[in-house]
Amino acid sequence: MATVTFRDETATGRPLEEFALPDLPDSISARELVRLRVREEVARYNAAPTATYNGLVRPVDAEVELNGYRMGAGRWIDWERQADIADQAFQRNGFLLLIGDRQIVDLSEEIDLITDSVVSFIKLVPLVGG
After folding, report:
1. Pick from 18, 20, 27, 24: which is nearest to 1 by CA?
2. Which parts of the chain sit beneath pLDDT 70?
3. Do the Cβ atoms of 79 and 95 come closer than 8 Å?
């Protein structure tokens, strides 16, 4: 079983936040890895809801803030819906997924978590007028 560190980074590579998940399989598809990350961050939010959700993708009806997404009071998030949104965001280049030193371009790609235990997510912001 592998332990993986999920890390959010800026486009310049500066780490923003990270958390580790133990006991993952040694090999997994990139899609399953993204879904695991989303499931974990939603579970953490749902266990102790706050006014701001700081996750990979914006929940439906949440407002964008500087450091996350403003949520309604006591709002519960459906992890499966968030995982589907993350899948769509990846397809639209909403974020980059880096495993070790390489970029993943296909979510069906199998990842060896024993060799590559750090997974970096870089959110991309659309250019104004572009």
Report:
1. 24
2. 125-130
3. no
